[in-house]
């Protein structure tokens, strides 16, 4: 058995007594207090996450934009400096290599943030598709990342800095922000459906930034683990690689068409995605709400009558809505709102119906 | 540190067994089990009259994150189930040894009780797992 990787924050969450699990080869906290409490803290006040396991790749050189345009489905030419963009890397057949965040510093300088479990695969993929005058640098080991998420995030973080954080709009970022003596890239973004920030710092600064935020936030900020991160992103219908998107699930099927720009010029997977977008993909990601008693979980089969029409990608009891809900990838013709289906839960068919997503959307002020 | 009550018997699968009369036992999951699962949001119990088989699943408890089987530590007919858990599953978290009980079973083979763990043995088991 290979030993699990640890982030620079590992000693800190051990101090909190957090329960850790193997998450794609990383020893990460699933919860600090309880998934439910942590979830409600993020919806109601603020939660702090260690997401240092995420991967970061620096792209530099005169052909940096052309490279990003080739691997990402979104249109990076629309980015101005210090703006971020969500995109997807696809295989030529439209399957998903990974989803990513693209940060633009300048026309010749981008930062890509990718999923922890995919770092090796993604970097290899990027290297295989390098062309022109571009250099790639996997700086994942040189970066710690914390996420503070929830309606009180901005007011808590503001106490640590003289930089006016209200200048940083949603999906924008600012490098070299002084957070009580710690140099950070501050990005207004996240994976919870709430307002919040993702903070990129040097590994050695991770633990002290964590402590500063916890001390400053007091009762308003709660340390959170992967369990709450998953229920939060699920309610907001944000995809998780390996569940809603994967090598065999295209971003069109996963309903991520907002991040696919077919008219931006050629990119890897464009023909397949164009075909799916124009003529319909065979499958569609839908929301399900259980009508009968039971909780749908990943990989549970979904039926209409005797026909298996797909399977659940993520399911749980929504802590915010207190309803048993799921995301499921189903044959497109059965994906309409109100469609009645059965989810097979431990050899029993339990009734459910197709409902609108996202399950949760925060009220914009 | 998880609570282990001295007067109960235990299974390796983290159930507790209380002998409540002639060949009758009450069953639930231990404090250690509810704590490991976290917030319990769903409980599925056997039907009254079902025949439970020792070491086989007689129901499930689900937390936000995971599904766990509840293994019957003994064989016999299910006499009563705690229906309150269907509407308020969090009772299992709050009072695992009391209001959070799951089923009462009439033992078909009382000698099965001898194979269960004592409180001391169970305590040693969870210390190993912790």
Give a verbal description of the structure.
The complex is a heterodimer of chains A (365) and B (130). Helix content of chain A is 20%, strand content 34%. In chain A, helix 2 crosses helix 7 (226-235). Chain A has 3 domains: 10-51 and 143-235, 2-Layer Sandwich (Gyrase A, domain 2), CATH 3.30.1360; 55-140, Aminomethyltransferase beta-barrel domains (Alpha-Beta Plaits), CATH 3.30.70; 282-365, Aminomethyltransferase beta-barrel domains (Elongation Factor Tu (Ef-tu), domain 3), CATH 2.40.30.110. The mean pLDDT of chain A is 96. Chain A has 365 residues and is an alpha+beta fold. Chain A has a 6-stranded mixed β-sheet. Helix content of chain B is 20%, strand content 35%. In chain B, a hairpin with a 4-residue loop joins strand 1 and strand 2. The mean pLDDT of chain B is 95. The chains are: A alpha+beta (365), B alpha+beta (130). Chain A binds chain B through residues 30-31, 34-36, 39, 227, 230-231, 293-295, 297, 316-317, 319, 324, 346, and chain B through 38-39, 41-42, 44, 60, 62-65, 67, 86.
CATH superfamily of chain B: RNA polymerase II/Efflux pump adaptor protein, barrel-sandwich hybrid domain
Question: How would you describe the shape of chain B?
Answer: globular
Q: What low-confidence regions of chain B span 5 or more consecutive residues with pLDDT below 50? A: none
- The CATH class of the largest domain in chain A is identified as Alpha Beta
Quick one: biggest sheet of chain A? Answer: 6 strands, mixed
* Overall tally of structural domains of chain B: 1
Q: What is the alpha-carbon Rg of chain B in Å?
A: 13 Å
Note poorly predicted spans of chain A.
none
Task: Please state the second-level CATH architecture of chain B.
Answer: Beta Barrel
Strand order of the largest sheet of chain B: 1-2-3-9-8-5
Pairing-aware structural class of the strands and helices of chain A? alpha+beta
* Multimeric status of the protein: heterodimer
Binned, the helix content of chain A reads 10-25%
| Residue share in β-strands of chain B | 25-35%
Q: What is the average of the pLDDT values of chain B? A: 95
What fold name stands as the CATH topology of chain B?
OB fold (Dihydrolipoamide Acetyltransferase, E2P)
| Share of helical residues of chain B | 10-25%
**End-to-end C-alpha gap of chain B:** 9 Å
Distance between the termini of chain A: 50 Å
As a percent range, the share of strand residues of chain A is: 25-35%
- Number of distinct beta strands of chain A: 19
